[in-house]
Amino acid sequence: MSLESSLLQNITAIALIGTQRQTFTPISTYGKLGQLLGSVDTTNQEAALLSTVAIATMYQQAGQLPLLDSSPLPEPCELDDLPRCSDRTGYYLSLMLSGEHLQLLPELLDRLADLGQRVHETSLPSLLDLGKRQSDLREAITKVLGKRGQWLAVQNPEWNYLASEDGSVWETGSKAARLMWLSQLRRQDPDQARQLLESTWKQESASDRTAFLESFSNNLSMADEPFLEALLDDRSKEVRRVTVDLLTCLPESGFCQRAIARVQNLVKLQREGKQQYFMVDLPEVHTPEMLRDGIEAKSNDNQIGDRASWLLKMLTSTPLSFWNQHLAMSIEDLVKVANHSQSDRLILQGWIAAAQKTGNLVWLQSLVEFSELEEVNRIAGQPLADSLILDSQQQAAAIHLLKNPDLAFSNLFKSILFRNKTIWDEEVSAIVLDLIITTLDRFITTSHLTSHYWGISEFIRDAARYIAPSIIPTAKDQALAVSQKLQELSLESENKKELRELEYTQTTFHKSIKQFVDLLQIRQEMLGAII
After folding, report:
1. Element (H, E) at 462
2. Contacts of 110 (CB under 8 A, 6+ apart)
3. Given the DSSP bridges, would you call strands 267-272 and 275-280 parallel, antiparallel or unpaired?
4. Could you tell me which of 38, 107, 312, 430 has the fewest CB atoms within 10 Å of its CB?
5. How far is CA 202 from the centre of its chain?
6. How does DSSP classify residue 118?
7. pLDDT given at position 1
8. At CA 320, angle to CA 319 and CA 321, rounded to 5?
9. Long-range Cβ contact pairs of 55-61 (< 8 A, separation 24 or more)
10. Letter string b/e over residues 274-308, b meaning 16 or more CB atoms within 10 A of that residue's CB
């Protein structure tokens, strides 16, 4: 036991007894410590005890040698092979890492990656910390770290979400790093990614299996079907749910063919003269095979019974192309028949849900045009399937839907726009800009109360992040002009309550359009700095 430890134990014993019950006398020891303790004034017993404690504690701290780390030093970092971004770009990056305009960081990182540049060394710790908290930024961060950033990440276990280049991360990495690696591999070589996951599937936890499986929405194909078919028997309910969603996007899969076999005799096209409508027979019994394909025995919807919920699930899983082929009718004609007053509403609900799950914008276009918009929005307002491939037909349908004035600012409208959280092209940007300006001009002209003004204002603020860079100057000019009109608008109403609501709407719109312009300005300056 060290000298100072022994002294502290003696002092502690005295303190426990108390100076009133035992007279405190200076503690005697040798050396400089002894001289200092001997000089303590014992006139005030309590003060003397505390002074002795302070001296002994200070002696203990001052006498300690620094700790030595005998572990070997890490290998030095390789020289960076990417040019560093400009100081101006570094300024905007530091601004975002401090919390200002953080929503623009993905665009900045993507732009640097496109130019083959890396971030400034001083930003690396903050950027790696941010990736630890926000998983959606990790892949973008990885592309701009350079050799030093990759080396630095290895030194801190909290930054172990980065995947190593040789793929060994699948055996040794954290869940985050493994997921990032699998997602990247899924985009580059989907077959290898599937085989990799198959090789360790039985050792993975249920939550990990679910997360890994969700990455299969990238490059999903019939090559994945045997693996997915087997997962319908997985012990995890969440794994089975993801599996059903994925198989629904594979029309040729055995899963979809079983759905077709179940519904084709339950849905009947009735003809009375020139009138056509759909009638349905509800399934009679619930079978183990239905449960395996994700059709639960009990309905989760209070508005429909168990048997109706079985049919609705079957319709959702049935490929939409089946109806064109089976009934030899166009999408437009099918939707019109489904909207007939005598048609069972389950048909329409199932088609809307199927279009949403598979991201089929061509079907959604007809469903929007010939159905009640409220019903379409309610069902199709959820995020569209990530596996959606925007071919020419789908792109045309997307533009058509975005131009539909009845769909403006709706859930489906926003779902189409923000599906991938990527910068819009010029055509889409022009449509959105025109909608924003037209909506605000209409309010200025008519002073008409808008019940969902807050949602419109939120949309305006969000839109500034996605406007195509080439449209930014025009967007700023038009937004500034309408902002000036809003500021100068003089509102009148004999109804005081209505006037207050109008004034509040005016203030809300003016604030949102100002934020819209400010963010566009920051984006313009930021993109101009990246050279």
Report:
1. helix 453-463
2. 140
3. antiparallel
4. 38
5. 28
6. B
7. 44
8. 90
9. 56/4, 56/7, 56/8, 56/11, 57/4, 57/8, 59/4, 59/33, 60/2, 60/4, 60/5, 60/8
10. eebbbebeebeeeeeebeebbbeeebeeeebeeeb
Tokens of 33: 């410590």
- What's the average pLDDT block by block, 10 residues per block, for the chain (531 residues)? 61 71 71 77 79 79 74 86 93 94 95 95 94 90 92 87 73 87 91 95 95 93 97 96 95 97 93 91 95 94 90 96 94 93 92 91 89 70 58 88 89 86 93 95 84 89 96 96 92 83 90 96 94 81
C-beta neighbour count of 242 within 10 angstroms: 21
Q: Between the CA of residue 214 and those of 172, 197, 220, 246, what are the distances in Å?
A: 21, 12, 11, 8
Query: Nearest to residue 251, comparing CAs of 345, 104, 361, 357?
Result: 357
Residue position matching structure tokens 């985050």: 176
Long-range CB contacts (within 8 A, 24+) of 266-275 = 266/311, 266/314, 267/315, 267/347, 269/327, 269/337, 270/342, 275/340, 275/342
**Cα–Cα distance, 280 to 264 (Å, whole number):** 10
- Give the contacts of 89 (CB within 8 A, at least 6 positions apart): 108, 112, 117, 526, 529, 530
Single-letter amino acid code for the residue at 2: S
What are the backbone angles phi and psi of residue 270, rounded to the nearest 5°?
A: -100, 140
Model pLDDT, residue 387: 46
**DSSP per-residue codes, 481-509:** HHHHHHHH-----S-HHHHHHHHHHHHHH
Query: At residue 381, what is the residue type?
Result: G
For the chain, the straight-line distance linking the first and the last C-alpha, in angstroms and rounded, comes to 65
pTM confidence score? 0.79
Domains and CATH numbers, the chain: 3-62 (no CATH), 180-250 (no CATH), 422-531 (1.20.58)
Q: What CA–CA distance (Å, rounded) separates 275 from 245?
A: 35
Backbone angles phi, psi at 278, to 5 degrees: -100, 135
pLDDT value at position 147?
Answer: 92
Q: Provide the 10 A C-beta neighbour count for residue 474.
A: 13
pLDDT at 105: 96
Alpha-carbon distance 323 to 346, whole Å? Answer: 15
Q: For residues 108 and 102, give the distance between their C-alpha atoms in angstroms, rounded to a whole number.
A: 10
**Residues 402, 404, 406, 408, Cα dihedral to 10°:** 20
